[in-house]
Amino acid sequence: MELHKRDNRNISPEIPDDWFAPKNKNQEQAEAVVRPSLSYWQDAWNRLVKNKLAMTGLIFLILLTIMAFLGPAISPHSGSQQQLANQNLAPSSDYWFGTDELGRDVFTRVWQGAQVSLFVGLAAALIDFAIGVAYGGIAGYKGGKTDNFMMRIVEILYGLPYLLVVILISVVMGPGLFTIIFALTITGWVGMARIVRGQVLQVKNYEFVMASKTFGTKTGRIIRKNLLPNTMGPIIVQMTLTVPSAIFAEAFLSFLGLGIQPPLASWGSMANDALSAILTGHWWRLFFPALLISLTMFSFNVLGDGLQDALDPKLRR
Amino acid sequence: MLRYIMKRLIAMVITLWFIVTLTFFLMHSIPGSPFNEERATSEAVQRNLESFYNLDKPLYVQYFSYMKSVVTLDFGPSIKKPSQSVNDMLSRGFPVSFELGIVTLVVAIISGITLGVIAALRHNGFIDYLAMTIAVLGISIPNFVLATMLIQQLAVNVPIFPVATWSSPMHMVLPTLALATGPMAIIARLTRSSMMEVLTQDYIRTARAKGLSPVKIVFRHALRNALLPVVTVLGTLAASILTGTFVIEKIFAIPGMGKYFVESINTRDYPVIMGTTVFYSAILIIMLFLVDIAYGILDPRIKLHKKEGS
């Protein structure tokens, strides 16, 4: 301590005074925030963009959606026209992805299948979202006996084997697009409801919700304006993961003969039709739908993982 | 503990009852009788058939007699194959499916945990990326696609393994591989993330400071704790393996329960569909129950009787 002080004093004789200038004490500048303020969503988006794998998934999904509508239009052949002279043709400059056992163009059908598969996935995710958020939101917000009762029902539904219920309902209602979506969502919303309830239970004790309540805001408005925006992260992640599992379930149902019925085609039903073809060497009939299912699953999964990291406020740096 | 088990046991029975009831009423809401075939049957035969299967009684009588038969584990005769009872099919198909399922589960658990641990220890290294690529591919590729690819490559192009059926250990390789890949991928990802979390804990640093060998740290201290989350998904995995057997048994022509179930769906053989659904559900619900109890025993931090409220 002693030594230090003496050192300081010793500096001045050797250095002229005019080397020193008063520091610019501009108050405004000192208080200015250097880092631009980012909203939660901007921050999450920035982090998502940095995740290469997740971005690959997102870009692929955008391309897939475009192709699902553009593909059938740019193809020279129709997807439903049967040409018995052109059975099982290998991919060529005329038939880009080959033809199937009825002479239908696989390229066109694969993109029409994409429309059906994506529709099933998105519809299931949206319906799960609507029911799950309403149910979980009310249960979590009301708490107490209401919560207890509502969660008992959820517990029973959650214990039901998902795919078995889906199969049963498909058997009873007869296969078809509507049946599949109905079957997938009738117990599918339970997972979403559990997540929303857990989140709402957490958020509803925060001060801003209490402030809202003291102003006399109505329950519905508190749930919509205060609670849901703050629970959106896990909800979005859950939705991104619902889409691929719905597409997967549809493929599974189609495989059992309970899925999409002709003339409509989905990737699952095309793969199922093509199973015998693989042994006779017509690999393209299975390859293209299978490749697209796998790529879509992959994309949704990596995007979901990426969103999970990006939307987690705890990971914010 | 005992109170929690009782509570779960009651919930389990309610869920089972719910499934039986749901199955029963769903099956009976289908329009038309199962005997409306192309085959012309006389009025009298039709009536005899219906009385044999109790279909002429009022619905609630049928319901109670069905509940009674479920409780006594007798699922009655098949409609399409009258010489066989549903119990016959179950007792013939179940051992095969059980074998396939257990072998798959063991393969998936061992390879999944190994992959996950290696990936966590070599975090962000080449092996980590390789393991996680395998894991993501495993989740992305549907098992029926994988099964067909395996048959084409390893049974047709290069005939190492038999194409189908179920009689020797060699027959088991391809179906097991096709069925185990998905669950393995899920276990690997879960093990990796929980292992990475555990490795940053203080007690691992303490163990390192004590000078324990890395092998001992990983197996004695880290892995034990990292495996807890894996235990929780075992129930769901069992469900996915079980439904996977429908597909795999169909592709490989394995005479298991899944094959009967798929056949019964295609022929609309209602007693078989009902019987197998109830049977499958019972297995799954009991699995979930056991996993819950096991989790409570394995993790001393969880006080079972308090878990309900959380």
Automatic annotation (TrEMBL), chain A:
- This protein's record includes keyword Cell membrane: yes
Q: Where are the transmembrane segments?
A: 53-74, 116-141, 153-171, 177-196, 235-260, 286-307
Stretches for region Disordered: 1-22
What Pfam family is a match for this entry? BPD_transp_1
Record-annotated ABC transmembrane type-1 domain positions = 114-304
Q: Where is the signal peptide?
A: none
Gene3D superfamilies linked: MetI-like
Q: What GO terms describe the biological role, i.e. biological process, of this protein? A: transmembrane transport
- What does the UniProt keyword field contain? Cell membrane, Membrane, Transmembrane, Transmembrane helix, Transport
GO cellular component terms given for this protein? plasma membrane
PROSITE patterns, per the entry? ABC_TM1 (PS50928)
| Topology relative to the membrane | Multi-pass membrane protein
As for family, the record states:
Belongs to the binding-protein-dependent transport system permease family.
Supply the name of the protein. Answer: ABC transporter permease
Q: What species does this protein belong to?
A: Cytobacillus horneckiae
TrEMBL record, chain B:
Residue ranges of domain ABC transmembrane type-1 in the record:
94-295
Q: Name one GO cellular component term.
A: plasma membrane
Record Pfam families:
BPD_transp_1, BPD_transp_1_N
Sorted alphabetically, the keyword list is: Cell membrane, Membrane, Transmembrane, Transmembrane helix, Transport
Q: Which GO terms describe its biological process?
A: transmembrane transport
Q: Where in the cell is it found?
A: Cell membrane
The regions listed as transmembrane in this protein's record are 9-30, 100-122, 129-152, 172-191, 226-248, 278-298
Q: What is its main location?
A: membrane
Q: Which SUPFAM superfamilies match?
A: MetI-like (SSF161098)
Q: Does the keyword Transmembrane apply?
A: yes
What membrane topology is annotated for this entry? Multi-pass membrane protein
Q: Which family does it belong to?
A: Belongs to the binding-protein-dependent transport system permease family.
The protein here is known as ABC transporter permease
Specify the species: Cytobacillus horneckiae
